């Protein structure tokens, strides 16, 4: 059905087909007029030559008009067998077209050629390096995270977390993880902060329990030395013991104390044992497994999961949240990596190519079925019109060429036969 020029996307094609059809029909009509005109010309060789040429031109033009018209409709509306081929065979045409596209256009060689020309890694790199493009993508991905998290059924996720963590940390990987964390801890100097915190808390505890400690030490002196010794020296001994302990704690507090150095040396030795001693690693694994299997720790892990999930969902909704910032940073880092590392770009291109080639057979089958289904669902008349609008102009040149070639071939054949036989019966 034809639409107005403003709404018909095929208006230009329709005008072009109409113009070329009028040209081909006009040439055929002109050839017929020339044929009729030869009967009014004086008899002679040249008249007969022109007449034979015109006859052949008319026949050639009519034959090609019939052939072209029969592709899309019944010539002059007459249901001649094997005409209106496209409307009557659109299902078979759709299947053939689908097989052709999938087998000869959408091929492995063509896919590799296109990927090689596009350089997908460079396209991805430019996208990731452009904050104006990557930040909206990061925000869109962040907005999708809550749905992804919510799609995880909490009970299953929690049970999986509780079941997997003890297994993960109980093997050699758990000991290596602990060693790696401790190395990072030592490299950053945080181990000394922990040591200082422990010393400080110990001093606070001793200050708070000083009277109780005095009493306990005095009682112990009386128990060991008798009532007299306890009465004479108990309080003094308790005071001196507490003073000595506080003095030693004060000596430990400076950053260059020997005990701090010994603590750092011991920690380094323990890290090395975790990395090299299988028995030590196994012992740490058992301790971690038992700790994580404890109901209190399991409950704590579940609470951590719930809090983490809630925080992630809430933060992902904010355009200026940490999730968006983190994803934007990840995109930027990936873009920098691709820009600076030609090997990474090559690996990305090869990986993309490998995925597409792996999916190609399935995609070819689906593309063939899709084309066949689309063409098969077309209205017969609409299908013929769609195809004719796109190839009809070239087919009008077939009519034009048929008329001209017939005219020339008819004249040449007349001249040849006259030359050979001296006359042609017609």
TrEMBL record:
Membrane-spanning intervals of the chain: 22-40, 400-421
Annotated keywords: Membrane, Transmembrane, Transmembrane helix
GO cellular component terms listed in the entry, alphabetical order: plasma membrane
Pfam families: DUF445
Protein name: DUF445 domain-containing protein
Organism of provenance: Neoroseomonas marina
